[in-house]
Amino acid sequence: MPVRSGQGVRPAFRRWRARRPFWGGLLLALGGAEILLAEKASMKVVMHIGMQGLAGYLLPVVMLLCGLLTLFNPAQRLFYSIIGVLVTLGTWVTSDLGGFFIGLLLGLVGSCLTFGWLPDQEPRTSRRKRRKEPQATALHSDPTN
Predict the structure, then answer these.
(1) In the chain, which ranges are E strands?
(2) pLDDT tens sequence across 96-130
(3) Rounded to an integer, what is the distance from CA 118 to the centroid of its chain?
(4) What 8-state DSSP symbol labels residue 118?
(5) What is the DSSP string of 43-76?
(6) In this structure, is the dihedral angle defined by the CA atoms of residues 123, 128, 129 and 131, taken in order, positive or negative?
(7) CA 38 to CA 95: how far, in whole Å?
(8) Cβ contacts of residue 37 below 8 Å, gap of 6+?
(9) Is the sign of the CA dihedral 69, 71, 72, 77 positive or negative?
(10) Highest-confidence segment of 3-12, 68-77, 135-144
C-alpha cells in the first residue's frame, strides 16, 4: 500500500483507531485470550467431563471474537458489548473464576468501554489547552471598545 508524502503508518493507524472503540475491543479480546491461556485441562478431559468443560473453552472464544468484531465492525458495537459482558460473566463459573479474575476484569472493562463509546463525539481538549484558551482570548480582546 503506497504511503502519501507527509503521512506515515502511525497517523493512518491513529485515524483508524479514532473511528472505533479500540481500547474496549482490545481489552475484551485480551480478556478472552487470557482466560483461554489460563485453562489447564486437555481437550480429552473436557470431552469426558461434558458440556460444563466445553463451555470453559467456548465462552472465552466468544469473548475473543466479540473483541475482534468490535475492532473490525464498530457499527455493531452495542450488540458485541452486551454479548461480551454476558459471556464474560459466564466465565466466572466455567473457566477458573474467569481466568483468575484477570480475564474477567479485562472482559468487563472492555465491554463497558465498548458500550459507552460514541462515534460522533468531539475529541476532548486537554486541561492545559482549556486553561490557555481564556488567557489567549483575554490578551487579544481590546478593553478600550
Answers:
(1) none
(2) 777 788 999 999 999 999 999 988 877 677 777 77
(3) 13
(4) -
(5) HHHHHHH-HHHHHHHHHHHHHHHHHHHHHH-GGG
(6) positive
(7) 8
(8) 99
(9) positive
(10) 68-77
The residue type found at 87 is: V
The CA–CA distances, whole Å, from 68 to 44, 98, 132 equal 28, 19, 39
Residue 125 gets which letter from DSSP?
Answer: P
First-to-last CA distance in the chain? Answer: 56
Task: Check whether 7 has a pLDDT greater than 80.
Answer: no
Q: What's the CA gap between 98 and 107, in Å, rounded?
A: 9
CA nearest neighbour of 107 among 30, 17, 22: 30
User: In this model, does residue 85 exceed pLDDT 70?
Assistant: yes
SS3 21: coil
71: its cell numbers = 475492532
Please report the pLDDT score of residue 62 as a whole number. Answer: 96
pTM exceeds 0.85, yes or no: no
User: Given this model, what pLDDT does residue 55 score?
Assistant: 81
